[in-house]
Amino acid sequence: MTTRSMGRFITFEGGEGTGKTTQIKGLRSLLEARGLDVVQTREPGGSPGAEAIRDLLVNGDTERWCPATEALLHYAARNEHLEHVVRPALEKGAYVLCDRFSDSTMAYQGIVQGLGSEPVTTLEALVVRQTSPDLTLVLDLDSALGIARAKDRAKDKAGERSGGEDRYERMGEDFHQRLRAAFLQIAEDNPGRCVVIDASGSVPEVGAAIWTAVQDRLGLT
Ligand code: TMP
C-alpha cells in the first residue's frame, strides 16, 4: 500500500463483460453508506482530455494502431486523468474507484498485443509514479461468456455509445482467452495489491466477495 495521501485508490480490472461497472456502483453505495467520500471514474477516460483520447482507442478498425502507439495513447489519457481527477481526489481523502487502470495496458498492449512488459513498465514509472492502486480487484470470467455479456450490453446501450465503442470486443476469441490468462498472471505476480474475484456468480454474490476483499485489505468494518 502506498503512503501518498489520505485517500484510497481501488481499481477494477478484467476482460470484457466481467461486470466491473455494475460492481463499482455497488461498492460505491456501500462506501457512501459509511459516510465516505467516493469518486467513481474510468479509463481510458475520466477527464475531458482523456475522454477525447478514449474515442481514438475504442472506435474504428481493430488494426488501427501499432501496439506501441496504442500504449502511448493509453498512458497519455492516464496522465490527464491522474493529474486532473485521481490525484486531487486522493489528496482530499476520497475513495477513488476506477474502472480499469495500468494493469489493462500491461494485459492488452504489453502481453496480448505483444508490445512486451518493459515498455509498459517504463511508461508506468514516467506517468503513474507513486499513484499506484492500494487495491486491485481482478474480475475473472470465462472469456466467451464475457464477450456474450458485453455484446448484450452494447445492444441495450446502442443509442448512448459514440461510434459503438467496441473496437476491443471485436478482437477475436483467442485474443480474449489470452487476455484472461494475462490478468490472472498479473494478479499472481502482485499478490499484495491484487485480489482475484470469481465473476461467474450473481451480482449480489460477486458484490459480497468484493466487499469482503475491500474490508480485509483496507481494514474497513
Ligand atoms: P471499457 O470498455 O472497459 O471502458 O474499456 C475500453 C477498452 O479499452 C477495453 O476494451 C479495454 C481497453 N483498454 C486497453 O486496451 N488498455 C488500457 O490501458 C485500458 C485502460 C483499456
Q: How would you describe what is shown here?
A:
By secondary structure, the chain is α/β, with parallel strands linked by helices. The chain has one domain: Rossmann fold, CATH 3.40.50. It is 54% helix and 13% strand. It has helices spanning 20-33, 48-58, 67-91, 102-112, 117-127, 143-156, 173-189, 203-218; strands spanning 8-14, 38-42, 95-99, 135-140, 194-198. Strands 2-3-1-4-5 form a five-stranded parallel β-sheet, with helices on both faces. Helix 1 (20-33) packs across helix 8 and helix 2 runs antiparallel to helix 3 (67-91). The model has no long low-confidence stretch (mean pLDDT 93). It binds thymidine-5'-phosphate.
Summarize the model shown.
With 221 residues, the chain is of the alpha/beta class. It contains 8 helices and 5 strands; from the N terminus they run E-H-E-H-H-E-H-H-E-H-H-E-H.
Small molecules bound in the structure, each named once: thymidine-5'-phosphate
The beta-strand count equals 5
Principal-axes geometry comes out as globular
Q: What do the pLDDT scores average to? A: 93
Output the helix-strand order: EHEHHEHHEHHEH
Could you give me the name of the CATH homologous superfamily? Answer: P-loop containing nucleotide triphosphate hydrolases
Q: What top-tier CATH class fits best?
A: Alpha Beta
Secondary structure: helix percent: 40-55%
CATH architecture: 3-Layer(aba) Sandwich
Tally of DSSP helical segments? 8
Number of domains: 1
Within the largest sheet, what's the order of strands? 2-3-1-4-5
